[in-house]
Structure formats: structure tokens, C-alpha cells
Amino acid sequence: MPEGDVVALTAQRLDAALAGRPLVRAELRWPGTGGAHLVGATPEDVLAYGKHLLMRLDSGWTLRTHLRMDGSWYVARTGTHEAAGKGAFVRAVLANEQWTATGHRLGMLDLVRTRDEHVILGHLGPDILAADWDPEQIVDRLVGTGAPLAEALLDQRAVAGIGTLYVAEGLFATRTNPWLPVAQLPRTALLRLVTVIRGQMLQAVTGGLGARVVHMHNRAGQRCPRCRSVIVRELARQPPEQRPIFWCPTCQRAG
């Protein structure tokens, strides 16, 4: 599943292409949205909240999409072959006279009144990448889960936007055991952990995904770059929400 940095970069790309330009084509190929009339509306902005994309229109509506595991948005020049919007997996086509955005394999798509965004987002915790983020608030919510660290960090109700990659990399960078109960980690250590994860994600948002530094994620069986122990893979959370966590039992040993 795409991490919050991917969603933030996608929002930047869509905002640059669509914001401030009236839509001349709008197709939502999703159950329950076929009757929506968005042509003529102007996207005011496109922004990310955790792993959710919000396109706010001047008509008072918000289009919310979520990439889930395989979704993506592509932007192409209007009128080109890439902007045709053909294909069985295209779920949305939004175009102005210059640019066309096509949403492929989207996992969620909702059209709600902008004033009602809280209905679909109210269950989420604070966005880890928000400009006005409050690490103290995030730590409070993590502690409130009563879960092991890896599971608490993945809980979008506690903090929105963190996925398995940044759970693994943040815990490795701070030498923290993924299975330690949140309540057993000193508050200062929790504050440092969420600050490190946010910094890692912002590095990718500002420098592109090529700026990601990956030591642990998806490297089971390889050697830890710090101590040369073998990296292991274990599962966090319960089915059907299990997620892989990669960590070093030596560098990140509890106690």
C-alpha cells in the first residue's frame, strides 16, 4: 500500500495540473457516482490527508480517493493517447483544456459535500505530514492504542499516513523493538520516534521517492547494515489487516 509520502507527491502533481482550471471532462466510473455532474466545476486544490487524496471543487463538493494497494493517478496532456482514459481499470478521468488526470485501480472513491468531509475522515488520527503537526498529540494517540509499537504506528486512527516502510525504517533508525508495548517506551523516545519518521517521509516528499533511504523494509534474509545480523520479517496486526514488519533482532533488541 502506498505510504503517505507517495500520496503527498500525488496530491502535488494533481494540484499542479488541475487546480484553478475548469473541468471540461469528468468521468467517475464508480458505483453510485455515475450521475455526478462535475464538468464546469473548478478544483480549488488537491491535498493529502494521511493516505487519502482530497480534491475540493468550487461547487462545494470534495472528491476523495484512496489508492489502497495498487491504485495510482497519472497526468498527461489533454488530447494525447495517454489521456484517452481507456482501460478496464480506469476509475476516474478528470480533465481541463491542458491536462488530464486518470485514476487507475483506485481502492476508494467518494463524492461528498466539502462541509461533510469529517464523515469520511473523522475516524483518522492526525496527519504525520501536516504542516501544523503536533507530536505530543500523536504520542498521546499512540499510547492510547495500548498496542505494540509496530501495530500502533500502522493504526491510521492513531496517526494517519505511516505505512510498513516507515514503521520499519523509523524503528531501525531509533534502535527500537517493534514489539515493545507503546506504554513501555519513555515519552521522550516516542517523541523522537515520530519526529524521525516524519523527517524520513518529508525527505521523500521534498526530494522525490529516489531520496528514500531504505535499510530494513523488504530485506528479510539480508544483513543488517549496522551489525550484520540477519534481518527478519514478522507480521503485525490480525487478519485480514496483517502487515509485514522487517527488523533486526540484534540492533533492535528490547531492553
From TrEMBL:
<keyword id="KW-0238">DNA-binding</keyword>
<feature type="domain" description="FPG-type">
    <location>
        <begin position="215"/>
        <end position="253"/>
    </location>
</feature>
<keyword id="KW-0862">Zinc</keyword>
<dbReference type="InterPro" id="IPR044090">
    <property type="entry name" value="Nei2_N"/>
</dbReference>
<feature type="domain" description="Formamidopyrimidine-DNA glycosylase catalytic">
    <location>
        <begin position="2"/>
        <end position="115"/>
    </location>
</feature>
<dbReference type="GO" id="GO:0006284">
    <property type="term" value="P:base-excision repair"/>
</dbReference>
<dbReference type="InterPro" id="IPR012319">
    <property type="entry name" value="FPG_cat"/>
</dbReference>
<comment type="similarity">
    <text>Belongs to the FPG family.</text>
</comment>
<keyword id="KW-0227">DNA damage</keyword>
<dbReference type="InterPro" id="IPR010979">
    <property type="entry name" value="Ribosomal_uS13-like_H2TH"/>
</dbReference>
<keyword id="KW-0255">Endonuclease</keyword>
<keyword id="KW-0863">Zinc-finger</keyword>
<dbReference type="Pfam" id="PF01149">
    <property type="entry name" value="Fapy_DNA_glyco"/>
</dbReference>
<dbReference type="GO" id="GO:0140078">
    <property type="term" value="F:class I DNA-(apurinic or apyrimidinic site) endonuclease activity"/>
</dbReference>
<dbReference type="InterPro" id="IPR015886">
    <property type="entry name" value="H2TH_FPG"/>
</dbReference>
<dbReference type="GO" id="GO:0008270">
    <property type="term" value="F:zinc ion binding"/>
</dbReference>
<dbReference type="Pfam" id="PF06831">
    <property type="entry name" value="H2TH"/>
</dbReference>
<dbReference type="GO" id="GO:0003684">
    <property type="term" value="F:damaged DNA binding"/>
</dbReference>
<dbReference type="InterPro" id="IPR035937">
    <property type="entry name" value="FPG_N"/>
</dbReference>
<dbReference type="InterPro" id="IPR000214">
    <property type="entry name" value="Znf_DNA_glyclase/AP_lyase"/>
</dbReference>
<keyword id="KW-0511">Multifunctional enzyme</keyword>
<keyword id="KW-0234">DNA repair</keyword>
<keyword id="KW-0540">Nuclease</keyword>
<dbReference type="GO" id="GO:0000703">
    <property type="term" value="F:oxidized pyrimidine nucleobase lesion DNA N-glycosylase activity"/>
</dbReference>
<keyword id="KW-0456">Lyase</keyword>
<keyword id="KW-0378">Hydrolase</keyword>
<keyword id="KW-0479">Metal-binding</keyword>
<keyword id="KW-0326">Glycosidase</keyword>
<protein>
    <recommendedName>
        <fullName>DNA-(apurinic or apyrimidinic site) lyase</fullName>
        <ecNumber>4.2.99.18</ecNumber>
    </recommendedName>
</protein>
